[in-house]
Amino acid sequence: MQEIQPHQIKESGLELKDVIPSAIHALNPNLFAPTSIESIALIPPSSHVLVLLVDGLGEIQLQKFGTDTFLSQSTETVPMRTQFPSTTPVALGSLGTGETPGQHGFVGASFFLPEEDALFAPLKWGRTPHPISMTPSTPLFEWAAENGINVASIAREKYRNSGITRSVLRGGVYFGAADLLETENLARARLNETKGPALTYIYWPDLDRIGHVHGSGSPEWMMELSLVDSFISRLASLIMENKNQDISLIVTSDHGMVTCPIDRRIHIESNADLTLDVSLVAGDPRARHIYMRTGAANDGIARWQATLGDDFTVISREDLTHGALFSDLDPDFYQRLGDFMVIAHGNAMLSSISDSRTSSLLGQHGSVSEEEMLIPLRIFHSALNN
């Protein structure tokens, strides 16, 4: 079999939000998604682009624990950044729309929705709000399908009608897959049967789930990484078997992960200085949105920072929108942000009864560290055989 040559990647400042616009550009350079492509498209011209997102596979963890993997040995690349907060619904919102969280409105693992007068957690989407009303952004899969690209998604069947799928990942056809073998078979069928231009999105969640419970680098995590890496190796081989197509395989993720031991956890509801005048606690344990009673925000910011010390940074809503984190926030989403956010450093975290199960987990993410923000970008490209 012909040896797979990875596409050489130059440093470009690429972010997760740029992946699908760049894939569309590679499929048809005359098509431009409804967001600007600021960086040079790194994906070479292709008739079919497969985008595999491995949930929870951070670049730092891959470099630290995956030195013997196919991914590490077979490619040379510059790490890419996910969006802040570094959490799945935020990242998938940006992947699916090509926009920043401030533009598409998914601003955390959970956050306040003024129109519902309640906290909202996208991964636990109920009957409301209606998925199409959640964001003004046009899903890129839907836009691409309307403009002549054969689009498909391969993921667990339970995600087919989820709020996130219907809101920011809708478009094209959806194939439910129970395991990696079925995912591989569906990808093989797409490669063998689909005429370009085609875009196939593949989502695999299990590495993240295992990392949350056992921690990155644990035996359980390493075993799952090995399974995923072998799957990726076989996908790359599938590309080489299709000698009459020009195909690219993109491997990326939504966030990395930090292991937070018990002695580095502060429980919000166990500290009177952290509960005074607080109405709602949301977000991730490493990137909390804190909503205060009317008029209490300024005192709360000072009190929280004094109480928490150097392990956390407390940032007001105004500073969030005037700084780099949410500089392009749509004014309609202003009240979705907390009166302030609390961002963890090192391996510290803030647990809460508002998400007791999430707060009990060993692996965490959401903050701004390289362990959480840096994600892989691996591009395998098979040129047409002459």
Set out the fold topology.
Elements: H1 19-27, E1 48-54, H2 59-65, H3 70-74, E2 80-81, H4 88-97, H5 101-104, E3 111-113, E4 118-120, H6 140-146, E5 150-155, H7 163-168, E6 173-176, H8 180-193, E7 198-204, H9 206-214, H10 219-241, E8 247-252, E9 258-259, E10 265-267, H11 272-275, E11 278-284, E12 287-292, H12 297-308, E13 312-316, H13 317-322, E14 340-344, E15 349-351, H14 356-359, E16 363-364, H15 370-373, E17 374-375, E18 378-382
Parallel strand pairs: 1-7, 1-8, 5-6, 5-7, 10-15
Antiparallel strand pairs: 2-17, 3-4, 8-18, 9-16, 11-12, 12-14, 13-14
Helix pairs in contact: 8-10, 9-10
Protein model, in words:
Strand 3 and strand 4 form a beta hairpin. By secondary structure, the chain is of the alpha/beta class. The strands form six sheets. It has a six-stranded mixed beta sheet with strand order 6-5-7-1-8-18, sandwiched between helices. The N terminus is likely disordered. It has 15 helices and 18 strands. The chain has two domains: 219 residues, Alkaline Phosphatase, subunit A (3-Layer(aba) Sandwich); 100 residues, Gyrase A, domain 2 (2-Layer Sandwich), CATH 3.30.1360.180. The longest helix is centred in the middle third of the chain and has 23 residues.
